[in-house]
Design brief:
Growth Hormone, Chain: A, Rossmann fold, 3 domains, 4-stranded antiparallel β-sheet, membrane, SAM-dependent_MTases_sf, transmembrane, transmembrane helix, Spermidine synthase
Length: 564
């Protein structure tokens, strides 16, 4: 007997599974490749849906007569192919950088597209065929499709909070297969047996599935070091966190550590987010002297200008910057971190290792993004520290160029300045790159933020550099001669170079980590000059300040010089 009404519940559930699968693929590709490759999932879905539309147009008359069987078959095929195609694609020796010179990589990319478009082809067949078969109920079908899609897009985020990504992949496959089978047979015994079998598969199958993460990611390379091992994984929609120990070749994370430092860091663990990093957990047993190396980083400068400050740290991560504030006897530390799984690792799972860092009386932890916290808080601080959270290799290779960052825009700096007490400091540390990029773009952004508020940028900025990092200070007030002398003493003791302070001369720059020219000083002076805009446009890299409308701080390509 033919159905006279469309299977609205089945359509809604199938649409939910399809949208959840699409969102899940974004997460999966961010893990196995890099974040920007996840964007191709949208084109994959469109390719599958477009191919399905062509197929249905050419064969709809025959298909309409077998709707019930074909709808169920497409749902089952979607479920089977969703997991199978992703696992198959992981076996392809696809290496994105080789696309520039290896023709085989283009073939692998094409195979990846065709394979991953297949599940979307099947799910589009089922939903599209419903529109053909039940034309008069197209409004109801469309409503069911949209409601299901909304539930799927939200539901997959909930699932990713509860389960690892590969488990969620299997659950979605099981859901689609169950939809297809129950649409064909509704016998109570069949339903019961089917549920038992599929539930068993959903429980036991994920344990046998593994990621084939790109061998060029930091996690893959770290695990090849003798003695290194993965201790734990924690997953959320924000990333897959992997905790790694490397006792034989230990982690030594101290970005830009002065060559004059006589002490090395304590034992550390690495946390890799989607295979990149590491974010560092540093062992602390309550002995401040073991943290003395933290005073030999460029980021320690604000603590020499403000004694026992009230500090705000945006991007607390594994607690590196919090430890630095603890070592310098900050009176109060507000630490802000957006990833709840990372907080749990530091606070609970490795709380003994980190000396219960986030439970110290002077430390107050907040789960929030940095920008949201700044907009919500009414507190004022002596020092605001923007943590150095991105990996040098990823940032230097341009792999984070398309990532939005709303903390490095001119609007964000303007808001941060409003949270400073009089004469307080905003401190931002970045990796040092040559020719200069990050440091000058950040300096230009700070100049713009101060000038828009009618302040004196040339008297409120200070820039120093080590051999691997730069630190920019923005003062809510004017730097005094005493401040400048403190900075000179700090840099001389650590062999750091001063790139800019109010009244600096070129002879005072480029003294320790010597470059062919005092590039950072030259850039700072140019950005403070009346010809700043013309100089920015002529510079080899794009260092125009990022804005909330274009929050891509790490895009440095300048069209004028792209051909060179």
């Amino acid at each position: 007997m033919k159905k006279t009404a469309p299977p609205l519940l089945a359509i809604a559930l199938l649409s939910a599974a399809a949208l959840a699968y699409q969102v899940l693929l974004l997460r999966l590709f961010a893990i196995v490749q890099w974040q920007h490759f996840a964007a191709m999932i949208i084109s994959l879905a469109l390719l599958g849906y477009a191919a399905s539309g062509t197929f249905l147009v050419l064969s709809r008359r025959w298909l309409e007569g077998h709707f019930n069987v074909l709808f169920s078959a497409n749902a089952i095929l979607f479920g089977l192919s969703a997991t199978a195609c992703f696992l198959l694609v992981q076996q392809l020796p696809f290496n994105p950088p080789q696309l520039l010179w290896d023709a085989d990589q283009s073939l692998y990319l094409a195979l990846m597209y065709l394979c991953l478009a297949l599940p979307f082809f099947f799910v589009a067949n089922g939903i599209g065929l419903s529109f053909y078969r039940f034309r008069k109920a197209s409004g109801k079908i469309y409503s069911a499709d949209l409601v299901g899609a909304g539930i799927g897009a939200i539901g997959v985020l909930v699932l990713l909070l509860l389960f690892p990504p590969l488990s969620v992949l299997v659950y979605l496959s099981v859901l689609a297969i169950l939809i297809g089978l129950l649409n064909l047979w509704r016998n109570l015994w069949f339903v019961s047996i089917t549920l038992v079998l599929l539930t068993g598969s959903a429980i036991f199958l994920p344990a046998h599935l593994h990621f084939q993460i790109s061998p060029y990611k930091s996690l893959s390379q770290t695990l090849q070091i003798r003695g290194s091992k993965q201790l734990q994984q924690a997953s959320s929609p924000l990333g897959l966190l992997s905790v790694v120990a490397s006792p034989q070749v230990p982690f030594r994370y101290a970005p830009g550590l002065s060559l004059n430092a006589s002490q090395e860091p304590p034992p550390q663990l690495g946390i890799f987010n989607d295979g990149e990093g590491p974010i560092i957990l540093t062992q602390y047993q309550g002995k401040p002297e073991t943290l003395a190396y933290l005073d030999y980083l460029t980021s320690a400068l604000p603590y020499h200008l403000r004694q026992q400050p009230k500090v705000l740290i945006l991007g607390a991560g594994g607690g590196h910057d919090v430890l630095q504030a603890v070592y310098h006897q900050a009176s109060a530390i507000d630490a802000v971190e957006a990833n709840p799984q990372l907080i749990q690792l530091v606070k609970d799972d490795y709380g003994d290792f980190t000396g219960q860092l986030y439970q110290r009386p002077e430390v107050q932890l907040y789960l929030s993004s940095g920008r949201n916290f700044i907009q919500a808080t009414q507190a004022h601080y002596d020092v605001i520290q923007l943590a150095l959270v991105d990996d040098f290799g990823v940032a230097n290779a341009g792999l984070s160029a398309l990532n939005e960052n709303y903390l490095y825009t001119q609007e964000a700096l303007a808001q941060l300045l409003t949270r400073l007490k009089p004469d307080a400091l905003l401190s931002i540390t970045r990796w040092l790159k040559l020719p200069p990029r990050d440091a000058l773009k950040l300096f230009a952004t700070a100049v713009m933020a101060l000038q828009q508020q009618g302040q004196q940028a040339d008297l409120q900025l200070l820039l120093i550099r080590g051999w691997h990092t730069t630190t920019l200070l923005i003062k809510n007030g004017l730097f005094t001669s005493q401040d400048i002398q403190t900075v000179k003493d700090f840099c001389a003791e650590r062999s750091f170079d001063i790139a800019y302070y109010p009244g600096i001369s070129v002879q005072e720059t480029n003294q320790y980590n010597m470059l062919q020219q005092p590039y950072f000083y030259q850039g700072a002076m140019a950005l403070l000059s009346p010809q700043a805009r013309q100089w920015q446009q002529a510079y080899k890299y794009a260092i125009t300040p990022a804005s909330d409308n274009q929050p891509y701080f790490l895009i440095f390509s300048n069209g004028v010089y792209c051909r060179n």
